[in-house]
Amino acid sequence: MKYINFDKTAVYQKLKNAALDFDLKNKLDAKRVGECVVPMAAGLTYSWAAKSVSDQTVKLLQELAEKQGLIEKYKTLLNGEVMNTGENRKVLHHLSRGQQGQPVIENGKNIGDFYRKELERFGDFANEVHQGKYKGSTGKPFTTVVQIGIGGSDLGPRAMYLALENWAATEGKKRMDAKFISNVDPDDASAVIAQCNLEQCLFILVSKSGTTQETLANELFVKDKLVKAGLDPSKQMIAVTSETSPLARNSAYLNSFYIDDYIGGRYSSTSAVGGCVLSLAFGPEVFKEFLSGAAEADKMALETDILKNAALLDALIGVWERNFLMYSSTAVLPYSQALSRFPAHLQQMDMESNGKRVNRNGESIDYSTGPVIFGEPGTNGQHSFYQLLHQGTNVIPLQFIGFTESQRHDDVTVDNSVSQTKLAANLAAQIVAFAKGQNSSDKNKEFPGGRPSSLIYGKKLTPAVLGSLLAHFENKVMFQGFVWNVNSYDQEGVQLGKILTKKVLSGNFGDSALEAYSKILGISFA
Amino acid sequence: MKYINFDKTAVYQKLKNAALDFDLKNKLDAKRVGECVVPMAAGLTYSWAAKSVSDQTVKLLQELAEKQGLIEKYKTLLNGEVMNTGENRKVLHHLSRGQQGQPVIENGKNIGDFYRKELERFGDFANEVHQGKYKGSTGKPFTTVVQIGIGGSDLGPRAMYLALENWAATEGKKRMDAKFISNVDPDDASAVIAQCNLEQCLFILVSKSGTTQETLANELFVKDKLVKAGLDPSKQMIAVTSETSPLARNSAYLNSFYIDDYIGGRYSSTSAVGGCVLSLAFGPEVFKEFLSGAAEADKMALETDILKNAALLDALIGVWERNFLMYSSTAVLPYSQALSRFPAHLQQMDMESNGKRVNRNGESIDYSTGPVIFGEPGTNGQHSFYQLLHQGTNVIPLQFIGFTESQRHDDVTVDNSVSQTKLAANLAAQIVAFAKGQNSSDKNKEFPGGRPSSLIYGKKLTPAVLGSLLAHFENKVMFQGFVWNVNSYDQEGVQLGKILTKKVLSGNFGDSALEAYSKILGISFA
Known about the structure:
The structure is a homodimer of 526-residue chains. Chain A is of the alpha/beta class and 526 residues long. The first copy, chain A, contains 19 helices and 15 strands. Chain A folds into three domains: 23-82 and 301-490, Rossmann fold (3-Layer(aba) Sandwich); 109-287, Glucose-6-phosphate isomerase like protein, domain 1 (Rossmann fold), CATH 3.40.50; 492-526, no CATH class. The radius of gyration of chain A is 24 Å and the shape is globular.
């Protein structure tokens, strides 16, 4: 497998020389909307009609996919090669939801079997909790699950829970409420605990290494509260960790479920990190449906024709926008309240993966990598930052997501339409408004148009659809990492802050500014 | 008063020619941290030591402030001149919390008196609700207030409520729970209603014009639920609207409180829009403390020396970063879980105000205006997008916010420090890590440094401190608008989407792409 920097490829120069302008205003018509679609897993569709991408650009992007060996590299990753070069690790989150490549064997152990065994173990455990086999310290059934974790142990699982909470309630699948404690700010844990009936809460401690500062502080915060309430933490807390961590097989926990170093935090929603809390909240069958949607998306991402592979095409158009149209941020705009925290999850997944300035061998690179990702649900965002998106001085590509049905099927007719129809009408209107703009003799009422967007659409946000969506973006980010020749799976950029935090807490600052900032923030070692 | 485009000023050219490089890595020491501070209202401090700003830059920014008449223009705004040129309106949100300028008289009416009268009216109403003078349709006391509004009627009030909820609970000031319904997605209203005991809910309908599509749809959604539950909506809903709207003095509502066209939605947290819900949740005295912090900040923003005026200096450094260092986005990073939605509010306030491409006279401009604003609370963000902030290929200026005390005073000691100390230690560490970076022979572990940040810090997040924070950013955005010579107070960029939505809902698309998108999103007129 050949790994070369993006700007050293011949196709990079061809893209540099390609025409940047595309007359989106005039090209976007019903025919283009009908043609520029790619099927996705679980019945979703990726529509790229409103992207500023010409036939010539598509051709060059196809060539780029081939010359950078994107599908081959994906297969290599699936088959268990060390793709996290910096940390010398395999990258196996796909394996947590399906077997797309060869079995991955290490030291005689089939890693897929390990993931599948854990999936069954935490599924069985969730069923047993629901059946009342496990109860709180005072003998009452567990009604609430509280996940203690930060970063990937928080954002993804929380976003997935919120995405399915109303669907589950409506379908009669809601088993337990879920809450989340993440921030080391003590007000976070304190406020969540204050809302809980502690004797009916099952806590999940999530830390792969068993050494995450925030998570361990919050664990002790919670245990202190349990003990003070006369409850036994060892009967009310499980651990999700690696088999080699101090939390594993530790009698301080009711049970432990395992992950390994081959699934990064931001890719762990389909592992035990997301699986325990989602199985407890909605039942293991719902979690498996979610996995099935993700697995189907992973399979479809193996297609080599970029016009038939939504994740690949999305990735390549993103590269076009980032490196040639020079757009530095992307907005994710789900027209679905259930996806309220999905942009925050993608913000981590994308920015932590591809916010890199060295290639996979640790050598400096000379081109832009991951963009800023931000977003809020529509229609809320329309009344907030869309002003800048429509009429600001920079172009920001948009990723819309929409569904034809609501999750709760509870609606009202006002002015001859239900709210779900209004939601969809707003979404259609925005795509066209951004693409086509509006002329006006009053420049303040003029919309320049030519502002590109893509749309992922489907019938309803179900567990399988959510899995499909999640895997789509994971695979998009993976393909972009391959194009840019970066390692999307480490995060060295988080280390320096940890080191300096330890210095502050030890009182050995080693830097006068660090000491001065610590002092004004109230830290003293008198 | 002289209004000229930024690039037509002499100081623009001087800034263009000024040295961009500043050796932040080596200049940031205890002395600079001690010197580069500006007092803010309510005991906060603005620290700009870690900004890439030299003495020469400061001098030029002072000149810019004077040449563009920023303080004069602010006074003009306070005195009631029409500063929202596009809509021919005064801009009077400052007057909702204090009288900094001359009395503003219009048609013989003192507008300050009008705002003060409404403040007393909704304060009295809140007290009466708390005293049980008003009760739900079935005679039970109101325990929950539910705000129905979108955009500025949602983001600001919601962020302020979340910021004070734990403080109020701890101080014994929490009177009622507050919930919010905003999105036209029917799942939003349906899910909120499902969590409510309807007979004890008081609803606040917020729409200045009384015509906001989402809000009216949600009003009817709620009323339908109330009627189906055998409750009387006219006894359980109040309106916040303009005196000329169809909602005013309407017997369908228990009471109405008024705003006017001189307070834009995104600046309405200190008016009845924020005041009703916050006074009901925490009592009118708490809301008045919040206003006092904002008023003090407004007063301090009149200072002409940029080194003594935090909002002005923050604004000017932002212009320096946007137009000369060419940074296109800014991250807002509060180390406070209570401020979890404060970045979302600033995202609206800033991007909707200054995301403009024409000047205040509607003429095209040739320089960058408002940046992308995004953010999440720390330490959570550290485990998410900070990788890109530290090691990505673009520099993103950072706005940190931190406090020495938690709101709930409920903490745990782990490894010799409480969580609040860990939170502060992380914040100090991040500022220094971004500014100074780290050399390494392994380029993957190298941090380039030179990444600028500012810090707003104080003792504890109280109502007055929150008011100070809010007004700081409002005034910062105002000053930037003056520099850029744009109208920060209209939002023509939201109009085109509304027009096209109406076309979709009427079935008269007038555009084949609009019809095609509507069809794939499930809208049909069979």
